[in-house]
């Protein structure tokens, strides 16, 4: 029999490690993953998702209950409140860690004891598609590997990337203002380690193939524990070469292809997602030729959609949507408008002017937000992200400040997200309409803590049970919209999408199911004024019967118009799918 998998793997490894025996390295990787050289490939361009897929993003300990491990409390909350609304759960790093709320991992193969254990993780994985972080770019300075690096013994001796202060590092793209190189005392003298993110997060050295093999072993263990979706954290920075920007290098793309190849041959229904918080054109490269990421984050959506709703002008959002290529079958976008991190500003490069960016920052500042900065190659500090809870980000407009449309504006944002091409992902604090947690910022000293609140389960249940609380109003309405979305073939992540031209206050697009039997015209009033929509501008087919899936309103006269209240949305469909 042919050894097609091995041959493909060798060709990829040759790009990354041209001076090594890649035939032997391929054998090591296949053995580590438990794969045969002739392992059958998964079907090409297979969509491992459909319109029913909705992701929840949460920390393991966001919801807590006395005398119970947080992972058990989370599982309970999911079962009681969200089992009919979500298909997938992304549990942010649940491993032992030393900083950055989990992203400075000390042990990839252990569950943080304060969260629970592997049995708790496996329990959630049995009920939902489980997504976990592969924190692949860096590891904690307090990990065993790094202790071995200091002692100059294996495993770990050559696992971390070293730099030289005399090297030309002026072109390196940075997401932070902290020093790139940090001196470390080892048993054979001082060495400088590369730290893209912080002194406690030391970058791994993938030029050493042993590191790749270690991660193959980690991936296999995750698959065996029920993890089926892999979020490759900060993967754009994986390969370093002094004198280059050290981001998006060809070796990085090739390593992603290698990891995908191994993962999907082990588990054909597994999904690889790349986390690359960069300008839109750079982000799109991580699809490769449908052979890198199955899914990429739509990083430009959060800042553009927030900007649209606080300015009442959808020009830039519409321009961006028209520029987005349809994803090939077997690939799609992950749509989100809030996350555990801030609202990224780099993805607005080339989409918003500097003046528009500053206006957005000023508006978010007036709503209680904070700004984190990054260091540019020429030594300047530029805004990297806005730290703010989404509910508070939408409490008013740039022109008039706070107003009484906060909840409607917030729901409108999610109605847009739910209808766009791709898979919708809800950060738990958006689903719960949690406000800015300034007290937590004060306590931790970290700006990102503003959107990383922790709820006591009994308090949360009381808020959700109170029909007068904004938490309950938002939660129930978002759940209702999710339930509608999950039944519509035209909302399949790969269904056709075209942008509508309805002026600057109406943001609209058309979705059509892959069988072409359902059309949905998604129209959103993104302003704080009533808007009229002439049905003749939408081009509804006269022989079909049309209704708004959100309100239940039917449309009998296609020569008339519909009235949209401030921030109201309609999903006009020729087919109502209710079951």
UniProtKB/TrEMBL annotation:
Transmembrane segments annotated in the record for this chain: none
Superkingdom field: Bacteria
Native organism taxonomy: Bacteria, Pseudomonadati, Pseudomonadota, Gammaproteobacteria, Pseudomonadales
Assigned keywords, A-Z: Glycosyltransferase, Transferase
Protein name: Alpha-amylase
Glycosyltransferase found in the keyword field: yes
Signal peptide bounds: none
Residues annotated to bind substrate: 100, 138, 231-233, 340-341, 448
Molecular-function annotations in GO: glycosyltransferase activity
BP GO annotations: carbohydrate metabolic process
Residue span, Glycosyl hydrolase family 13 catalytic domain: 53-485
Organism: Marinobacter flavimaris
């Amino acid at each position: 029999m042919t050894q097609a998998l091995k041959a493909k793997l060798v060709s990829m490894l040759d790009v990354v490690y041209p001076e090594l025996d890649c035939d032997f390295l391929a054998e090591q990787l296949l053995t580590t993953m438990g794969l045969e050289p002739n392992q059958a490939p998964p079907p090409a361009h297979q969509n491992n998702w459909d319109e029913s897929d909705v992701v929840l993003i949460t920390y393991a300990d966001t919801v807590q209950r006395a005398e119970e491990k947080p992972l058990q409390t989370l599982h309970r909350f999911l079962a009681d409140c969200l089992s009919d609304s979500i298909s997938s759960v992304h549990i942010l790093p649940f491993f032992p860690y030393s900083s950055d709320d989990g992203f400075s991992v000390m042990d990839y193969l252990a569950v943080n004891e304060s969260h629970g254990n592997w049995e708790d993780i496996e329990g959630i994985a049995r009920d939902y598609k489980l997504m976990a972080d592969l924190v692949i770019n860096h590891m904690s300075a307090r990990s065993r590997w790094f202790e071995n690096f200091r002692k100059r013994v294996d495993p770990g001796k050559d696992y971390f990337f070293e730099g030289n202060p005399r090297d030309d590092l002026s072109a390196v793209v940075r997401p932070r203002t902290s020093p790139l190189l940090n001196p470390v005392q080892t048993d054979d003298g001082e060495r400088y380690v590369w730290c893209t993110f912080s002194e406690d997060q030391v970058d791994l050295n993938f030029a050493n193939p042993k590191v790749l093999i270690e991660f193959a072993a980690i991936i296999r263990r995750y698959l065996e524990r029920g993890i089926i979706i892999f979020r490759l954290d900060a993967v754009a920075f994986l390969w370093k070469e002094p004198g280059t920007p050290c981001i998006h290098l060809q070796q990085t793309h090739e390593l992603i292809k290698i990891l995908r190849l191994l993962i999907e041959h082990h588990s054909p229904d597994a999904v690889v997602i790349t986390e690359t918080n960069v300008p839109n054109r750079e982000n799109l490269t991580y699809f490769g030729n449908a052979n890198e990421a199955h899914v990429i984050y739509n990083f430009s959506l959060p800042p553009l959609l927030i900007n649209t709703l606080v300015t009442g002008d959808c020009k830039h959002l519409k321009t961006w949507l028209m520029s987005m290529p349809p994803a090939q079958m077997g690939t799609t976008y992950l749509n989100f408008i809030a996350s555990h991190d801030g609202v990224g500003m780099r993805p607005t490069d080339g989409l918003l002017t500097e003046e528009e960016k500053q206006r957005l920052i000023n508006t978010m500042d007036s709503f209680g937000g904070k700004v984190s900065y990054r260091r540019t190659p020429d030594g300047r500090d530029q805004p990297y992200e806005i730290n703010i809870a989404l509910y508070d980000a939408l409490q008013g407009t740039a022109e008039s400040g706070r107003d009484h449309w906060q909840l409607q504006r917030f729901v409108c944002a999610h109605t847009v997200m739910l209808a766009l091409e791709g898979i919708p992902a809800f950060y738990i604090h958006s689903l719960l309409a949690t406000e800015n947690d300034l007290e937590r910022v004060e306590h931790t000293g970290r700006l990102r803590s503003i959107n990383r609140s922790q709820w006591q389960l009994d308090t949360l249940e009381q808020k959700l049970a109170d029909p007068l609380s904004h938490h309950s109003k938002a939660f129930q309405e978002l759940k209702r919209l999710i339930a509608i979305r999950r039944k519509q073939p035209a909302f399949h992540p790969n269904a056709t999408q075209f942008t509508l031209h309805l002026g600057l206050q109406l943001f609209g697009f058309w979705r059509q199911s892959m069988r072409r039997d359902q059309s949905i015209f998604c129209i959103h009033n993104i302003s704080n004024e009533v808007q009229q929509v002439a049905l003749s501008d939408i081009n509804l087919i006269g022989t079909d019967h049309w209704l708004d899936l959100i309100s239940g309103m039917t449309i009998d006269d296609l020569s008339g118009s519909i009235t949209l209240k401030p921030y109201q949305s309609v999903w006009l469909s020729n087919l109502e799918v209710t079951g």
